[in-house]
Amino acid sequence: QVQLAESGGGLVQAGGSLKLSCAASKYSVYGFCVGWYRQIEGQRRDLLADIEADGTTTYYDDFVKGRFTISRDIAENGLTVFLEMTNLKPDDSAMYYCAADRRCPPNSDSVRWGQGTQVTVST
What we know:
Layout: E1 5-7, E2 10-13, E3 18-24, E4 33-39, E5 45-51, E6 58-60, E7 68-75, E8 78-85, E9 94-101, E10 112-113, E11 117-122
Parallel strand pairs: 2-11
Antiparallel strand pairs: 1-3, 3-8, 4-5, 4-9, 5-6, 7-8, 9-10, 9-11
């Protein structure tokens, strides 16, 4: 069963940086695409970036291209997908979710979601 756990959110000033982590058992997401979404309350959940099962092919939404970097690390005890966010703006404030799916973009009916981590960027 795919279980995802996000961490790393918090409060940061505009212009600052945060690094989000999405941890999973490497066996549960082996061969999966993993992506990061964000959702402002009352709005839809938007895909920011994803990384394919090969660990190198990535996609970025134009709004975050050049500011956010997605990467993946596989260790003995699991797999972690990171979203490094720089030059943060107040508009980046949202709940951030990671998602895993059998193909990119991770948005099929069988997509698995984490519980989310809140990012708040102050002026």
